[in-house]
Write a structure and sequence with these properties.
The chain is an alpha+beta fold and 254 residues long. Helix content is 38%, strand content 22%. Helix 2 packs antiparallel against helix 3 and helix 4 packs parallel to helix 7. It is elongated, with a radius of gyration of 20 Å. The structure holds zinc ion. Zinc ion binds next to helix 5.
């Protein structure tokens, strides 16, 4: 791979920032090369023919020239856009967080076919679903599993005993949920109902997730649990969480 001068990639524009005078620095997620940081030259000029194909959340086919330093996108063609995820304010923060989870979990220059397909599926479902929090929880659990971090949700992740009827804890450091004697007082408490939901969300196709009936308190537990697993594996917080919470608070007020 190191000898090639150019490559073509299917890429989701996951993050972008202004760069130099008229350029943009883009973070792309790709099936063949995982996460990539590239530069798109001149795309902030009104005459740029590239710009329209490199908007945030656009899936594009890009032609890239390798350079010392950051690679350069020289051509791009839109494959798919997700207008609902840019325009519908109730969906925007969920899309941001799904993409952030993928960005912090998928590493640079590694194959990520399954993860890429899962992310596109998550974005399609987030564009239409009424069960946005559950879709996001399911996506995070399935993304982790796809990367080799299958959460242990059936028996205690420490001792292997069946999980008791109460006092179970979410313990990412143990790789799942642990029983009362193993968990002690540390870790998020989680009800049996919540554990069953996590198990279901970890294996169901994302477009079936809205069938799950869960009360708001359980959904809140599921979200905290999924975030704890992501945070532990990625070794960093999800920075879009405060944005997600603000948007939800606004929605409750209105
Ligand atoms: Zn145990």
């Amino acid at each position: 791979m190191s000898n090639e001068r150019t490559y073509i990639a299917e890429a989701l524009v996951a993050r972008r920032s202004d760069y130099l005078e008229a350029d943009r620095r883009l973070t792309l997620l790709t099936p063949e090369r995982g996460r990539l940081t590239v530069v798109a030259k001149g795309v902030r000029r009104p005459t740029s023919r590239l710009a329209g194909h490199l908007e945030l959340f656009t899936l594009a086919k890009v032609f890239v020239v390798r350079r010392r330093g950051l690679d350069l996108v020289v051509q791009a063609e839109t494959v798919q856009t997700f207008p609902e995820l840019r325009d519908d304010l109730s969906r925007v923060p969920y899309a941001y967080q799904a993409i952030e989870a993928a960005l912090i979990l998928v590493t640079e220059e590694v194959e990520a076919h399954a993860e890429f397909i899962l992310l596109l599926k998550a974005l399609s479902v987030l564009a239409a679903s009424a069960a946005l929090p559950l879709v996001l929880v399911a996506f995070k659990l399935q993304l982790l599993a796809s990367l080799g971090y299958q959460t242990q949700l059936v028996t205690c992740a420490r001792c292997g005993d069946p999980l008791s009827s109460s006092d179970n804890r979410v313990r990412p450091d143990a790789g799942g949920v642990v029983c009362a004697p193993c968990g002690g007082l540390s870790g998020l408490p989680i009800e049996v109902r919540g554990i069953k939901c996590l198990r279901w969300l970890a294996r169901e196709p994302l477009d079936s997730v809205s069938r799950l009936q869960a009360d708001p308190a359980t959904i809140a537990q599921l979200e905290l649990a999924a975030d704890a697993f992501v945070r532990y594996v990625a070794e960093q917080d999800l920075r879009t969480t405060p944005f997600l919470e603000r948007m939800r608070a606004l929605k409750t007020q209105s």
